[in-house]
What we know:
By secondary structure, the protein is of the alpha+beta class. Belongs to the cation transport ATPase (P-type) (TC 3.A.3) family. Type V subfamily.
Amino acid sequence: MQEKPVLLNQGEDSEMELFGYKTVRWRHTLCIIGYIFSLGFLQALFYWKPELDVWCQCIPCSLSQADVILRRSTDEHKQYYKKEVKEICPCIPGSESTLQIITGVNSIISKSLMKQGKIRYIEVQKIRYVWNTVEGQFQKTGILEEELSCTDIHSKFGSGLTQEEQELRQQVCGLNKIEVEIKPIWVLLFTDIFNPFYVFQAYTLTVWALSGYFYNGGIILSITFLSICATLYSLRKESGKLQKMAQSYNSTMVNVLQKNGEVKEVESQSLVPGDVILLTGSKLFLPCDAILISGVCTNNEGMLTGESIPVTKNALPHTEGTMPWKIQCGEDYKRHILFCGTEVVQTKAQGQDLVKAVVLQTGFNTAKGDLIRAILYNKPVNIKLHREAIQFIYVLVGIALCGVIYTSIVYTINGESVRETVLRSLHLLTQAVNAALPASLTINLLYAQKRLKKLGIFCISPQRINIAGKLNLVCFDKTGTLTEDSLDLCGVVPSDGHSFQKMHCFPSGETLPWGPLLGAMASCHSLITLNGELQGDPLDMKMFEGTSWELENHSEHGTEESISCTMVKPGPRAGKVPVEGIAILHQFPFSSALQRMSVITQVTGESNLMVFMKGAPEMVIRFCKPETVPLNVSKKLEFYTGQGFRVIGLGYRLLEKEKLQTIQHVEREEVETDLIFLGLLILENSLKPETTGVLQELTNAKIRSVMSTGDNLQTAVNIGVNCGMIPKSSKIIIIEAKEPQKDSPAEITWKTMIGTLENGHKESGSHFDISDEGDHYTFSTETFHFATDGKSFQILLQHFYNLVPKILQNGTVFARMTPRQKSILIEEFQKLDYCVGMCGDGANDCGALKMASVGISVSQLEASVASPFTSNIPNISCVPLLIKEGRNSLVTSFYMFKFLTMITLVEMTSLVILFWKQKMVSESHYLLQDFALTIPISFIGSLNGPAPKLAPYRPSGRIMSPSLLLSVFLHSLFTIILQTTAFVLLQQQPWYNETDISSACLPLNQSTENITMRVPDKTVNYITTMEWIVTSMNIVILEFVLCKGRPFRQYLYTNYMLTLVITIHVAVYIFLLFANIESIYLFFEAVCTPYYWRVYIFFMLLIHFVISYTVEEGILENRKLWILIKRLCNYESKSQYKKLQSSLEMDTEWPPHNRTDYASKSVSVTDSKTIVFTDAPSLPAINSGKHGTPCRHNVI
């Protein structure tokens, strides 16, 4: 009996179901016999349908007893894969108790070892999973145990592994290498030959050979061979390129600390999880993922995130407790991880300790391994489109089967032999699917990818190009994406505890006097010097440059611990100060989740330490003593942020050195408390020149733009208005939500912002105010925009989830968003059936870039794990370029699909008519139709570039759309009418004779004695000649009629190759129609007909062209007509966001304003991935309160 499947990698993108099976010998033997008698076709079937292989050879069993695992993807494709269970016999020193001492009781090695001393495992997508005998599931190896706490990592692995531990872990985990296998030619050839497409080609060749089409079959065989060779060459080339990328830094020498204190230089391939590597110097490329346990590292993570700014990594803290270390460290646990493939540009030891890191993950488990696996095992996309394409092909096969039945009946009635009947029936079946279809669609994507590469946009997932054509909402990060990376330092507003002082303007040239405020600006940063140049976050650089101080790396500071630290000293242009410099002893790096950073410093010559903090003003204020914060701080913040300035809060405190045992092991919670508020740092982050124009282009194309940033809400709103994301005539409603308190439920407040920016200039002094008026406003869904911050967004998800879709419908600015909240925002938009794009430039956007339907990372690299698209264009102009190419590629795909489908139906119609009279298409006719018509279009039909302007609507993304189905139906109907009319008229001509094909072109009373008499047969006759000309010209007409230009592609004439080919096709076939050359008739196995009949054919084709073109352009491509039909039929869109928009337009009391609502029920969070909500609250009717008083309602 089949057991329930077990989930592997639950909750991850690579989630799959596992089924256990046990091989039965007699079944296996029968299958081998089947391979032999089927000449390998059964084996080919099993290769492409592994589930059939397993079901035929095995019986279901539990995973613990299985020797074969059938895994199934949990996505819509439900793809099956077969995996054999393997065993290893590790060399274990001593007894089982000795093993537990070596590896630990909770180690996966201890849990996976069976009584026989064996470990069972499977390999899935380059990752090894061992069978956990204790928990009864397969578990990933090559990673450090996830349940370890911070203390466990320091105590168990801080001093390294013993030789026995290293050897045992290596046997179980395998070598630390990322290796891409270049498969032998014969393996690739076997895989290609047994591809369903080539199997169908083999069937076609067999039928054609039996029918006597040897030349045609030979040419097809040659083209198939060349196609296979081209595919093999492409695969080998790509594999070689990927192998080179994977093997870089695959084998380097590293220093490993062993348990006995010995430092040993080993090859990086021998590293195992738990090893301690020593990091010395710079320019070191990490061969694994590792947790930094001592010292500080500065890494270049551009390969992973596209982030050009070096990232500072701090040592894992000695946090007490038993919770897993990732939970203890919170969302920013990655600040302790050194990722494989990234470059260590600088290391700094603290005290006498070395810079050490514990190996966390090896091989394909690492971040670099994820990038390689993402390319190797590209996740299927466009699932709905793929499913519709398969359904459409099934319909074509059904039509072909009807033709087979028709052929069998006709040939049987007319007394044809069984062999002839079967051959003609099978011949018709070869027309079911156009052999050029798969290649044409692939070529289209290759051309699109090539065009994008020329624009500086690189793609590791070509299937997503078509998805880019369906985008209707794009989320943008702000800093570095919409705005410049660099900042302009405007000034600092000092605080004296009770009020703010006059702003000190740095552009004036005056230096800031000595004090804690200057100390904070000089030391509270993560800057480093590389090759004599200052590098780091642009904000830090501008702040530090404003002090005119200088930075020195790795100075030995005179403390008891002789800490190697960074020193900052007054520069030549700095004002006179009574100190020689400040030593930065310890740093708590900036965290997007925490929204702050802090440093522990010591002024030269003083005994006490000073803690400086900078970050989001709201966050810094939270850690300051209330009495040191001016009462008007909120208004001050609104004043500057409302004008678009970026505002940073500063604070400090004194710290007695004696309270700290060791500075490098101090927890930030110990020092980030009871601070004294110093003031506000004011910076200006100007828009990139291209931003406004690009956003306007997207708006004109009816593509929504949304901002998701970690910056202040007021600043983000101001930037949104200045860049045109929010029209200046629109109302802005700020949403603020609060957590439930002991005596009150969660609440949500709606505040309307009033005021405008005068031409967007900061110096005008104009800013937004929050209105507390209770007057009733009437908004339409297009005249207001919601703005909120990450904290309120999280509360909305937990306590007001029913309002989230309504808010997202007009939500434009989402500020103070953590990386996790950005991902959730994308996911919530997708639930409304938006096709969402994400454009960002840094590590904080990685999750959102992966979550989006199309992620675009603005980076100087060609590939990163951050997103499927990477743009070298340093601004958001890459977004409309990608959308244009996506629309072009999508429309071209449908054009190729429809055109090649129509060729199939046209040729099938021709065969049906010919078979009525037991006639056949000659081999020369097939040669001209297939290789002069079909193949050129397959290669050059995709050369049209994208339209230069984005249309205000998207192309259809469905094969089963009414317009496409109606187009195929009508053109098929026109074809049937054309060919049937020509067939009937031909037989009514006075010269038509099935036994005499030579006298039709002779003048009256002319003798036939002096001409060569040709004997009619199944291919040389009037009907076949007529059908050949009509069918070929019909295909040429469809080439032109179906080739779409604007609004998504460039016009046909811009594709010079296609224009030339169509022109040649028209000229050649008109020549063949009217030429009266005997040698041509003989070569093409045609017969001569009277000129007036050829003129009939020409005018029939001309009428057919006019009707086809008029119907295609005037009806099928008439957008206004389709909109009218939808309205008359009361068609309602199935998209959730359109349904929601319609309902909100009918709701005269939406949106709320200047009021507070309360939640009646909370929600429960069941796990870290899925949020389950209880009864959702609904918005009540809006009742206006008294003037100046916000209305308050309970949300029931």
